[in-house]
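To: structure subgroup
Subject: Chain for Friday's discussion

All,

I'm putting the inputs and outputs inline so they're searchable in the archive.
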Amino acid sequence: MKPILFVRCDAVDTFGLAESAVRAEGADVRVWDSQDPGSGRPELSDVGGVVLFGSTYNVEHADQQPFIKEVRELTLESIDRATPFLGVCFGAQVLAWALRAEVGKAPAREVGFEPVRLEPAAKTDPLLAHYRDGDMVFQWHMDTFEPPAGATMLATGDRIRNQAFKVDERAWGVQWHLEIDRPELEYWLETFSAEGDLATEWGKSNEDVVAEADTFLTAHEEKGRELFARFIGVVRESGD
């Protein structure tokens, strides 16, 4: 089985539980630091699937941050080749943007744990069928997306409607951070606190988010690990 390509789009991204979850399924991980100008875009013929992770940048910064256009091209190539693709948060927004759907500021910023609502198609979806209506998922985003033309909606939210969609048979965009685990969550909070005040800018304090994590993170991690296991299943079925 070819390795899974993890696309890092931010220096603070440690991939949370993603790497261990993928390796537990017998797959290797290859990392592309897309913000490193010295690293060329990988050849998709060398990988079995692609996971595009989050970023503190948004697609509106594409003209100032060249890596954003690079990851868009990688996304389009993944779709053209039918390489299994999973976009997480910023990655979901890039998938929508690459397919000419609107991406922009959400009516509210989401941080911490929020309930997700499953659309009927999610019940049989290879990646999301194990989620249940009302499951609490971890969010940290200020932008949102419209689903691309022809996409299948899989999940919505109470505050920000569009949360997950599927394109064709092998490309998914998921707004919430399904990969987050306790060490990464604490690292993100610590990093943000060095530069700003979460309560003032996002409406929840660090303590609020940690308290939510104490209640919801264990179940969230279990769902995230299962999703990555399911993604590896899709890669295997694709023959890559």
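Points worth raising on Friday:
The longest strand covers residues 103-118.
Residues 4-238 form a domain with the Rossmann fold fold (CATH 3.40.50.880).

D.
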